[in-house]
Amino acid sequence: MLDAPDARELADFYLRLLPGWEVRPGEDGPDWVHIRPPDGGTGLSFQTEPAYGPPVWPSGPGRQQMMIHLDLEVDDLERETARAVAEGARLAPFQPQDHVRVLLDPAGHPFCLYTESQ
Question: Where is the VOC domain (predicted)?
Fold first, then answer.
């Protein structure tokens, strides 16, 4: 479950980022959205939270800490980073590893794209 100022907007971003994923029908109300992969595996859920405050990357004392982040394996790190940015992500200023790109989704949640280390 990822909180956001607008659950539908954030779910739409992840639907663009994760080709083939779809909205899972549900009766949870207008402030919730669930998406799932085409094979039916583990999905993601989003909840509208009016008081949401984005985490800070990298974390620091007295700053909003991230509670979770997604790691998504990709074949071509540069191409998929550019695609994520084109879909609405922002490249984080701090990049700790060569084979990982830390990005921030439209609600400010950090997530990582990575390739297997060489």
Answer: 1-118
